[in-house]
Amino acid sequence: MSARVAVVGSSNLDLVVTASRLPRPGETVLGENFRTVPGGKGANQAVAAARAGAACDFVGAVGDDEFGTQMRASLAGAGVDVRGLRTVAGPSGIALIAVDRDAENFIVVAPGANGTLTELDADNRATIAAADVLLLQLEVPLAAVVRAADWARAEGTTVVLNAAPAAILPTELLDLVDVLVVNEHEAAVVAGVFSDDPSVLLDALLELVPRVVLTRGARGAAYADRRGLRLAVPAPRIDAVDTTAAGDAFTGALAVGWAERGGATTEDTVMASLRWACAAGAACAQRPGASTALPERSAIDALYDATYRGTP
Ligand code: RIB
């Protein structure tokens, strides 16, 4: 079954510098290469879902500048339906990104046009209603995130929230989430519990939402739900060059795998969705940049087969 995914979220133009190491506060380091890459967690997850095989609609906002034109073209070029992408007066969102030789990064976002997405309209509601999965992040105003989730719940669309960047979330939103996707830092902030033990974080988050996916980078992912299912998935072994957008690749592919398996209701289907998402995240980390690194379905399948084939 082909999946339909709707994304309500951000688009940024990423201004990316590579350097041998990341600067400490107050320090200047000489970098190496500079380039601009379409990014933003929302747009990345939309492109990730489209490349993974879904029909994907994007609802967001860009500015009336050259960056906005570039980001619209990038999304459309990836096959994402951009009829819900508004152009507003003012600058587009941008992200300053530095990447070091260990593939680690830091990112600072200036939201620009993303900050204008405070209201959604009837067309946006129809888009959400037509989707199997609604994908949300936290780079646009919370009012739009809550409204989108509320409509999705009313229309029977599964709500997947990637709580990035990390934030303390209101009950109003948590009550509408079907699947929460977080890394360990985001998990600690959302749960208000700081622990190195994934099971402690998962237990705390299950008090708030019914299903949790914990992404753990090179250590893979963990899953828990209120029915008592707990799974751990190792990540493919790869040489990472840039982890920017690896979480977006993971989340986009998870949404597609989840929808294609009819909501991933059994242990086998949840496991397969998680493994496929881990393969997507790892494939992304093998290439530089955000949207430029998001893998096609064939690349996800290849890494999935190479890593998990024959594993129970
Ligand atoms: O998740 C990676 C993304 O975070 C980058 O593309 C950047 O724009 C920020 O939103």
UniProtKB/TrEMBL annotation:
Pathway: Carbohydrate metabolism; D-ribose degradation; D-ribose 5-phosphate from beta-D-ribopyranose: step 2/2. Pfam families: PfkB. InterPro entries: Carboh/pur_kinase_PfkB_CS, PfkB_dom, Ribo/fructo_kinase, Ribokinase, Ribokinase-like. The keyword Transcription does not apply. One of its GO terms (molecular function) is metal ion binding. It catalyses: D-ribose + ATP = D-ribose 5-phosphate + ADP + H(+). Substrate binds at residues 12-14, 40-44, 139, 248. Transmembrane segments: none annotated. CDD domains: ribokinase. Requires a divalent cation, most likely magnesium in vivo, as an electrophilic catalyst to aid phosphoryl group transfer. It is the chelate of the metal and the nucleotide that is the actual substrate. GO terms for cellular component: cytosol. GO terms for biological process: D-ribose catabolic process. Residues 3-296 form the Carbohydrate kinase PfkB domain. Keywords: ATP-binding, Carbohydrate metabolism, Cytoplasm, Kinase, Magnesium, Metal-binding, Nucleotide-binding, Potassium, Transferase. Its cofactor is Mg(2+). ATP binds at residues 183, 215-220, 247-248. Catalyzes the phosphorylation of ribose at O-5 in a reaction requiring ATP and magnesium. The resulting D-ribose-5-phosphate can then be used either for sythesis of nucleotides, histidine, and tryptophan, or as a component of the pentose phosphate pathway. Belongs to the carbohydrate kinase PfkB family. Ribokinase subfamily. This is Ribokinase.
